[in-house]
């Protein structure tokens, strides 16, 4: 049976005023999505983390009583504060048919130069987990040591000085409480100069 190569289902979300870009790996399969936007799985805690960090409310981005997130509300917020979202993977094969990074075979990574050209004021990148960090580092011209979770390192890409922070994964499979994940993200966003709760 031939392996299916999938292309990421959502375009990078790149507000013109972006100063911070979040980079994960690859969205889940369509049946696991509660909306057509980044981190669409209702079981993933990304938007609960954002709710806690910026509004002190984990349900802030939930769509009413539905088991879904509100994509329009999320986009409006990200546009207002200048946060971009872009997967590190453009094309991949799901070796087990799920969203697990452990079984994700990268066919083509993100065209990083092309993405960064569209957000000239971006200074900080946050990677959401180990695999996303490894993929991003593989795109850099010079070899950079993999940072620990919570660590920030400077790097240069196409003559541009940026920082990379490796953040904990917001997947429920990652063994860290929601409160601890939110704390890590809050520290990151504060260090990037964004106003948090």
From TrEMBL:
Protein name: DNA glycosylase
CDD domains: UDG-F6_HDG
Alphabetical list of InterPro entries matching this protein: Uracil-DNA_glycosylase-like_sf
């Amino acid at each position: 049976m031939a392996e299916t190569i999938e292309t990421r289902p959502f375009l990078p979300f790149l507000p013109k005023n972006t100063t911070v870009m979040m980079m994960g790996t690859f969205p889940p399969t369509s049946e696991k999505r509660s909306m057509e936007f980044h981190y669409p799985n209702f079981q993933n805690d990304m938007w609960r983390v954002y709710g806690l960090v910026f509004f002190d409310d984990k349900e802030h981005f939930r769509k009413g009583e539905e088991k879904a997130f509100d994509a329009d509300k999320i986009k409006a917020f990200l546009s207002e504060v200048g946060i971009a979202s872009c997967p590190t993977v453009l094309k991949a094969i799901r070796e087990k048919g799920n969203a697990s990074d452990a079984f994700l075979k990268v066919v083509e990574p993100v065209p990083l130069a092309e993405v960064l050209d569209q957000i000239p004021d971006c200074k900080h990148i946050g990677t959401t987990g180990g695999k996303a960090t490894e993929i991003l580092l593989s795109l850099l011209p010079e070899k950079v040591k993999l940072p620990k979770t919570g660590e920030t390192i400077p790097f240069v890409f196409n003559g541009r000085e940026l920082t990379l922070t490796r953040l904990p994964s917001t997947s429920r499979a990652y063994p860290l409480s929601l409160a601890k994940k939110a704390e890590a993200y809050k520290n990151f966003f504060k260090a990037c100069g964004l106003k948090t709760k």
